[in-house]
Recover the amino acids of this structure.
């Protein structure tokens, strides 16, 4: 009987070992399932990290675009001010040119008047010279008769 008990005990141990093996296999399957779920979760986390890194790069590029836009806006504002100043200067130059043209016209008119005055003075000088000769002739006759 001892042998039967021992055999039963051996059979019980074998059944226990078999049950433990089944439990271990079930636990291994569960562990593999958990690992698979963990791997999937890690994959999702990696995707999120990659997305966050891409968003950070996009944010940096947007910041650079904003800086360039600000620089361009300042340059456009400066160019607008320069163009306005040039326009004002051109207007003043046009006004100055008009005034110069009026002055030149005035000088030309004055030159014509002066030229006419000089011609009249020359004519008058010619008459005076003629009158002077006539007077000299009269004086010369008067002196001859008086002698």
């Amino acid at each position: 009987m001892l042998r039967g008990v021992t055999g039963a005990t051996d059979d019980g141990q074998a059944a226990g070992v078999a049950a433990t093996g089944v439990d271990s296999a079930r636990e291994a399957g569960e562990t593999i399932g958990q690992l698979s779920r963990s791997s999937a979760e890690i994959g999702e986390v990696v995707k999120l990290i990659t997305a966050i890194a891409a968003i950070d790069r996009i944010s940096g590029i947007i910041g650079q675009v904003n800086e360039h836009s600000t620089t361009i806006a300042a340059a456009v504002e400066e160019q607008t001010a320069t163009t306005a100043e040039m326009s004002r200067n051109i207007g003043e130059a046009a006004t100055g040119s008009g005034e110069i043209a009026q002055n030149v016209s005035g000088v030309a008119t004055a030159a014509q008047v002066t030229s006419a005055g000089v011609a009249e003075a020359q004519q008058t000088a010619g008459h005076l010279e003629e009158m002077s000769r006539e007077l000299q002739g009269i004086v010369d006759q008067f002196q001859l008769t008086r002698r």
The helical segments are 2-146. The chain is about 100% helix and 0% strand. The chain has one domain: 1-107. The first helix runs from residue 2 to 146.
